[in-house]
Amino acid sequence: MTTTIDSGLAAAVGSKAGDFRICQYTGLKVDVGAQRLIIVNAVAAVVFLAVGGVMGLLVALTRWPAVHLLPAEWFYLILTAHGANVLLFWIIFFEIAVLYFASAVLLNCRLAAPKTGWVAFLLMVAGAIVYNVAVFQGDSTVMFTSYPPMMAKPEFYLGLILFAVGALIAVGLFFGTLLIAKTERTYEGSVPLVTFGAVTAAIIAVFTLATGAIILVPTFLWSVGLIREIDPLMYKLVWWAMGHSSQQINVSAHVAIWYAIAAMVLGAKPLSEKVSRTAFFLYILFLQLASAHHLLAEPGISSEWKIVNTSYMMYLAVLGSMIHGFTVPGAIEAAQRRNGFTKGVFEWLRKAPWGNPAFSGMFLSLVMFGFIGGISGVVLGTEQLNLLMHNTVYVPGHFHGTVVCGTTLAFMAGTYLVVPLIFQREIIWPKLAKLQPYLFGAGAAGISMFMMGAGTLGVPRRHWDINFTDAVIGFQHSPGAFLMMGLNGISAILAAIGGGIFVLVIVGTVLFGKKIGPGHKLTFPLHSGARVVSKYGSDATVKLPGTIVLVTIFFLAFVLYYFVNWKYLSDLWLFR
Amino acid sequence: MAITSPERRVWWNEPVERVELIWTGVALLWGLFMFFFMIAWHFIGGQNLSNEAYRVTPSAYEQKVEAFAQKYQVRDESGTPVVKPPAGVDVYLLGRLWQWWPVLELEKGQSYRLHLSSIDWQHGFSLQPTNINIQVHPGYEHIMTLTPTETGEFGIICNEFCGIGHHTMTGKIIVVSKQAEAK
Q1: What's the number of domains chain A is made of?
Q2: What is the pLDDT of residues A463-500, one digit of tens each?
Q3: Which residues of A touch B15 (CB under 8 A)?
Q4: A491-525 confidence digits (pLDDT tens)
Q5: Position A525 in a domain
Q6: Could you list the residue range(s) of the whole structural domain that residue A398 is in?
Q7: Residue B130, in any domain of the structure
Q8: How far is CA B175 from CA A48, A280, A475, in A?
Q9: Do B48 and A465 touch (CB under 8 A)?
Q10: Can you give the CATH number for the domain in which B115 is found?
C-alpha cells in the first residue's frame, strides 16, 4: 500500500532556473546559495559536536570514581569548554542550517543576502575559536555559566559576543528570506508548519541573543576593568534569560524537525494546523520565563516571582510541549494507518521504518525528550522541589535528557535527510547508520537517568572528587551514588561510540559518498506523500488508539514521578 | 504535510478532533494543578525557602560570624571551631574558599534562624545526605528558620563551582537530641 520515492524524476534534474536547482525527490526549488550556506553551517556543527563530544566523554570518565581520568585542573577546564562547544556551537550552527532550510528551501525562495550569510558564518566560527583558545590558555576555567565574581579573560566573553552577533545576523537573514518569499509569492497561503516552528525558534533566538549581549557586554567591560562590579544575582537573572531561553530555541527547532521527518519519511500531516501552531505560539509567549529555573534556590527573590516565572505562567509553555507530544505521534499514527498499517493498536508503530535512521532517531528523540527531559524539567522547575536537586548532578541529568536525548538526537536524525537531499551524497555505511541512533540514544538515556539518580542521592555537579580526599572535614556519599556515577561513565562510553559513528558516517559521506545523480535510488527512501500538498491530518477521521495509549502512559508516569518527589521533600528537615 | 503550506488557505476553521481537544484539556488542567500546588505547599508544607534576605558587605558578614563563633564555641575539631548555640538564636554560617565555617551543633526539634552568605565567590550549600540545596551569594545575607528533624552528623558540601579547591570545600552540622530528652 505504501508508495515510496526511491528514484527521482530524471527529467527534473539539471533544469536550473537561475541559481536554483529542482530537487528530484521533493520537487522543491533549492537556492544554490542557500544550499552552500546550509552545508557549511552543518559541517561546522558536526565538527563542534565531535570536539565537544570528546570533552563530554573525558568529563564523564573523570566523574566515574573508579576511573577518575583527568587531574582536577584539566577536569574543570575541559568541563568549561564542553558546555559551550556542544550546547552553543554544535546546536546553534545546526539551527542556522535549519533556519536557512525552513525559509529558502521549504518556501522555494532565494536566500536574502547570501554574502551576509557568509559574514555571519565567519563571525560565528571566529567567536567559537576565540572562546576555545581563551579557555585552553587557562585562567578562564569559570564553567559555561561564568558566574561573577569569578572572572575569565576578556577573550572568553569576547568570543561569545562575536558568536552571538554572527548568529543574530543569520537569524536576520531568515526573517529577510521570509519577507522575500512573501513579496515574491513563492508559496500559497500560510507558511508550512515546519517553517512556522522555525519562526518560533528564530523569535526566541532574537530574545536570547539580545539578552546575551545585554549581560555579556558589561561582563566583558568588567573583565577589562571598565566596570567595577557585576552583581552576581542580577547577572544570573539576565544570563539565564539567554542560557535557558536558548534551550527553548532548541525545543522549537527540534519539534519542527520531528514534524519535518514525520512528513518526509512517512507522509505525516499535522492532525490540526490550528492546534500545532497554537502550541508553537505558546512557546513564543511563555518560554522565556525559564530564567527563573536557575533562581529557585537563591536569596532575595520572592516566592511569588519564582512561582509565576518558573511555571512559565501556569505551565502554558509546558502545555505547548504536551500538545506536540500528542500531535507528533498522532500525525505519525494517522499517516501509517493511511499507509495501510491498520491492524490492532500498534501495527503502525511496529511496522514503522525502524531501519531508517532519520525515523528511528526522530522517534527516540520524541519519546526520550518527553519521558526523561520533559518530566524531570517540570519537577526540577517546581519552586520547592528544586531544593532537593539544585546544583546536584540531577541538573545535568535533566538537561542531557532535553539537549542530548531530545535536540541532538533529532538533529542527527535530520542530518540523515539533509546529507542526501542538500549535500546530494548517498550515505556510506548504511548498516552503521541504521545502528547509530540506537547506540547514541541508549547512551544518552543512560547518562541522563544515572545522573538524575546520583543527583537524587546528593552528588554535586561540576565536582572533581566525590570522595572528598583532600577535604579537611571528610564526607562520604552512599555506595548507590558511586554506582550511579559509574553507570553514567559506562553510558557515556556508549553515547560516545554512537556519536563517533555519526561523525564518521557523516564526514565519510560528505567526503567520499557517492554523488547522487539523476534517477538515483535512495538507500533511505522518502514517502511519496512528500510531494503531495496536504489536507489536514485528521481529515476523513482516522482513530488514534495507539497514540492515546502512549500519552496515557506518559501522563501516569508524569503524575507519579511528580508526587514521589513531593514525598521526598516532605521527609526533609523543616525550613521556612 | 508539515513541510508544505496548508492545503486550505483558511486552516483555522478546520474542525479539531475530539481526542486532541481532550488531551489539551487534560494537559491544561494538570498544569493549573501543578501551579496551584506550589502555592498550596506554602500553607500545607514544612519545606519552603525563606524570602528574607539583606544586602551585606562580605567583611561585615565575616565579623558577625566570628563574633557568633566566639560566643558559643564549645570545642575544636581539626582546627575548626564547633559552635553550639542555644535553641532559637541566630546561627551564622559562612561560605568561603574553601570551607563552610564554623561547624554547628544543633538540637533535634529546635528551630534556629540560620544566616547564610559568602565572603568571596558563589557557593552551593548542600546538606548531605539530607539533600537540602541552597545557593549562597556574596553580598546577600539569606535568613531562614531551620529545624533539624533527625540526629547525627551531616556533611555540608559545596555544589557551586568555586575554583580549583571546590571539591575540598566541606563543613558539618552535628544534630544531637534535645537536652531535656537526653537527661
Answers
A1: 1
A2: 999 999 999 999 999 999 999 999 999 999 999 999 99
A3: 538
A4: 999 999 999 999 999 999 999 999 999 999 999 99
A5: no
A6: 25-519+540-570
A7: yes
A8: 49, 51, 16
A9: no
A10: 2.60.40.420
